[in-house]
């Protein structure tokens, strides 16, 4: 359980609770591994630089945020650690969400069933990434002000505005993904090849739900400021922020567009069948086939 004491307010670089060392050390390890894996994927799939930027920046910010919490365990009045904690764990998911939007765009380019009338995949991505940029600006500016000048409520207000905008865009995104999922399931190709598409849509849906849960929680948390009761309850923070973002990060790493859709991918636009599926040059399928052959031998 966290311990509290009467220490200076957050505005001078101090927490009202002592972070849990073991738990946050585990989170540091998890995000360090995910960042390392993502850097490897970036080297091999450097052409998908937009996806890589969102993932690497988001994972790096999350890693710095939990490193800061480990530092704050030793000294709650560490001002630099407090600023890292506030900015890192607040901005990290915003970068990850941009990669989430790009995942769906790649899916739309390969599968006509996932597209929406009058909205091209590029426009779909532009609208959501623009909303993500607005969230990033509001949260970034608000987080910086809140971390340095906690006596001024404008910082928290800007952060709440940015997080609320993120909740809105995530809710719209979840609705559109649900529509895509329904269309894909009703597709005439469902039994032959669209299972591959469904895996991507379901993974993106779970990742979006995790982002939505986290954003709603942060809005509720900051409604009372950084000194409020929710902001001092690390157990709830872990359940509604840390774990959802870890799940989201793992899913986005597994759903890397170039990992599933190589440039040699044969688009399934006509009636798909098992023989066509067998001809697809998809890295994920090739690796899974090699794995099963190795196990069988």
Question: How would you describe what is shown here?
Answer:
- By secondary structure, the protein is mainly α.
- It has a single domain, classed as Rhopdopsin 7-helix transmembrane proteins.
- Helices cover 73% and strands 0% of the residues.
- The chain is built from 10 helices and no strands.
- Helix 5 (154-186) packs antiparallel against helix 6 (195-222).
- The protein is globular.
- The N and C termini lie far apart (50 Å).
- Residues 1-13 and 263-297 have low confidence and may be disordered.
Radius of gyration of CA atoms, rounded to a whole number? 21 Å
- Beta-strand residue fraction: under 5%
H/I helix tally: 10
The N- and C-terminal alpha carbons lie at a distance of 50 Å
Tally of domains: 1
Low-pLDDT parts are 1-13, 263-297
- Which percent range fits the helix content? over 70%
Tell me the total number of β-strands. Answer: 0
CATH architecture classification name: Up-down Bundle
Structural class: mainly alpha
The average pLDDT value, as a whole number, equals 78
* Spatial shape: globular
The CATH topology assignment is: Rhopdopsin 7-helix transmembrane proteins
Q: How would you sum up the major sheet?
A: none
| Element string (H = helix, E = strand) | HHHHHHHHHH
Q: Tell me, what is the CATH class?
A: Mainly Alpha
């Amino acid at each position: 359980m966290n311990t509290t004491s009467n220490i200076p307010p957050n505005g001078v670089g101090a927490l009202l609770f002592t972070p849990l060392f073991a738990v946050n050390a585990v989170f540091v390890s998890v995000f360090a591994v995910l960042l390392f894996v993502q850097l490897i994927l970036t080297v091999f799939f450097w052409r998908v630089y937009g996806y890589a930027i969102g993932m690497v920046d988001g994972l790096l910010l999350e890693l710095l945020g939990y490193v800061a919490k480990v530092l704050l365990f030793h000294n709650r009045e560490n001002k630099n650690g407090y600023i890292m904690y506030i900015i890192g764990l607040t901005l990290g998911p915003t970068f990850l969400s941009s990669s989430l939007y790009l995942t769906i765009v790649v899916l739309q380019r390969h599968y006509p069933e996932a597209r929406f009338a009058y909205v091209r995949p590029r426009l779909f991505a532009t609208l959501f990434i623009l909303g993500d940029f607005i969230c990033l600006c509001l949260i970034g500016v608000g987080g910086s002000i809140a971390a340095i000048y906690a006596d001024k409520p404008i910082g928290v207000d800007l952060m709440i505005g940015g997080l609320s905008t993120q909740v809105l865009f995530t809710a719209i995104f979840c609705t559109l993904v649900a529509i895509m999922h329904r269309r894909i399931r009703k597709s005439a190709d469902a039994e032959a090849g669209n299972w591959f598409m469904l895996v991507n849509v379901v993974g993106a849906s779970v990742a979006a739900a995790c982002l939505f849960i986290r954003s709603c929680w942060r809005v509720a948390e900051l409604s009372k400021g950084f000194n409020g009761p929710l902001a001092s309850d690390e157990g709830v923070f872990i359940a509604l922020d840390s774990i959802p973002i870890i799940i989201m990060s793992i899913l986005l790493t597994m759903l890397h567009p170039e990992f599933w859709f190589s440039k040699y991918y044969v688009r399934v636009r006509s009636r798909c069948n098992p023989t066509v599926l067998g001809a697809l040059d998809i890295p994920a399928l090739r690796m899974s086939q090699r794995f099963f052959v190795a196990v069988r031998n």
